[in-house]
Amino acid sequence: FSPSVLGTREHWDAAYERELQTFQDIGDTGEIWFGEESMVRIIRWLEKHKVPFDSSVLDIGTGNGVLLVELAKSGYMNLTGIDYSPSAIQLSEKVREKEGMSNIKLKVEDFLAPSAELSGFDICIDKGTFDAISLDPSDAVGKRKVYVGSLCRALKPEGFFLITSCNWTKEELLNEFREGFEILEELPTPKFCFGGRIGNSVTALVFQRK
Length: 210
What we know:
Layout: H1 9-26, H2 36-48, E1 56-60, H3 66-73, E2 78-83, H4 86-99, E3 105-108, E4 121-127, H5 129-134, H6 140-154, E5 155-165, H7 170-176, E6 181-187, E7 191-194, E8 197-200, E9 203-209
Parallel strand pairs: 1-2, 1-4, 2-3, 4-5
Antiparallel strand pairs: 5-9, 6-9, 7-8
Helix pairs in contact: 1-4
GO molecular function, one term: protein-lysine N-methyltransferase activity
GO biological process, one term: methylation
Catalytic activity: L-lysyl-[protein] + 3 S-adenosyl-L-methionine = N(6),N(6),N(6)-trimethyl-L-lysyl-[protein] + 3 S-adenosyl-L-homocysteine + 3 H(+)
């Protein structure tokens, strides 16, 4: 991928500072990455596989925290969101407060340099964070490897990793996460047709840690 400002912390700090101000002004929570259907897809998978409501869930790069709010509304109780942008965590705290979801834990954390307590989760969810890391102008390849190592530490053996990406195909993601993970399922995503070929603009996969 070509390096992009979308891979820099400065970009996301500025973006979430704007969204935080907008939320304080008019109560708008801001953009939902990959749209509402991406959250529904994740929650449906958890419900279909009868994942217990007390399972520990980590949202990697939580942004405005809306996914965690929807998980809480669906009955999940042990929820943690991290983001390396302090403004994102401030925004997600405001959203949590507005929705009355006091049981959601939120922390400023860089997943590429995580604290020791960021471990032992039953489920990790990534909706666009791995994509952003892949666009980092400084050593994106190295940072992707660090991400996989962080994920191995954060997730329990046999825990589930649900990733939604608009930059990577299924085959590419299988290659990126071949160390320590096996594919369980590809989730259905919207399809498009171009020049007679059918493709997916978004890839959503479920991995299990070995």
